[in-house]
Amino acid sequence: MTTLEADLGEIVLDHGSGTQLSHELVSLIVETLGDVYIGEMEDSAMLPITGGQIAMTTDSFVVDPPFFGNGDIGKIAVCGTVNDLAVVGSKPLYLTLGMILETGLPIARLVRVLTSIRETAREAGVQIVCGDTKVVRKGEADQIYLNTAGVGVFERTPLRMRNVKPGDRVILSGPIGNHTVHLLSIREGLGFEQRVLSDCAPVNGMLDALFASVAEGEVHSVRDVTRGGLAAVLQEYSEAVGRTIQIDQASLPIQFETVMAMDMLGINPIHSANEGCVCLFVDPSAEQEVLDALRSHRYGVGAVTIGEVTEQAKAQVLLRDADGRDSVVEELAGAELPRLC
User: What CA dihedral angle connects 210, 297, 36 and 340, to 10 degrees?
Assistant: First the structure.
């Protein structure tokens, strides 16, 4: 245990009792979150919302490991919620923050998570408006679990799966598989984590820049590529529009070290989890314009076209290899990978 951890102590059951220790913990949380927290300690947050339509999402985060090389569960929680709001075309504004803390968690680690939440919320331009903390006994949680809800407003037409059409180009904003390899490498001691970093990032700034650069209606739909990976996203869209989606295996953006690690682990990159990659369905006339806009942002420098939505009226995803042969991408019956986000 470090000196800092010893000075701050550990989470105990009484931190969730509603008594003095609870008040001290809440004060620490509020102080650490700083300017991104605007709660007034009322039972509900009272917030201004302008416009006629909002986006709302919620998610729970049980990341294993909760602390990793270039991030932690706090960063993932903000990014995951912000990204879900951003990909439907809304402007993320507000987040809630619920925490389940295991007794014995060093309070210094909690501060680390809260600091990560604060910095990521600042980058994304969102505010934490209310929250809740529960404490459970040792063994009833894996150090820390988080739950968030997010609210965004629409300043443009919402993006929906049903807008996707035959001929649409399928574009990825960056490499896939890095988040999976980074966390598995730490967990299994593989030694790749220094060369393969998690892609965890809030993508709303990148999408704002994109939407400002192209005409409305040229980007038909966007989805963040998280659990289930690229394969799950493409299969969901294929079923929604009743068309075959064909992708080019050679075009998939995958870091060399990620390929090595996944070969070693027997994992298919298209099923891997990501936390900062989005898949876009774009009118073919705007393909290059969209690529240029994405590549001008630091989170989109690796943007590439990987395929298209075909005219074939059959819900399936085809992967074309270097020899021009197509194989059907099967939907996984269960989890190929352990919990990573």
Answer: 100
Place of tokens 């996984």: 332
- Which residue, of 154, 187, 217, is where some domain finishes? 154
Residues 6+ apart with CB under 8 A from 268: 231, 262, 336
Q: Of 130, 154, 178, which residue constitutes the final position of a domain? A: 154
Q: What is Dmax (Cα atoms) for the chain?
A: 68
For residues 210 and 288, membership in a common domain is answered with: yes
Q: Tell me, what CATH number does 271's domain have?
A: 3.90.650.10
pLDDT 10s digits, 170-223: 999 999 999 999 999 998 888 899 899 999 999 999 999 999 999 999 999 999
Instruction: Return d(Cα 46, Cα 37) in angstroms, integer.
Output: 13
User: How far is the CA of 104 from the CAs of 107, 142, 259, in angstroms?
Assistant: 9, 11, 38
Q: Same domain for 182 and 206? A: yes
Domain that holds residue 84: 3-154
| pTM for the full predicted model | 0.93
User: Same domain, yes or no, for 171 and 49?
Assistant: no
Give the mean pLDDT of 12-25. 88
296-299 contacts at long range (C-beta below 8 A, 24 or more positions apart)? 296/209, 296/213, 297/205, 297/206, 297/209, 297/210, 299/173, 299/174, 299/201, 299/203, 299/205, 299/206
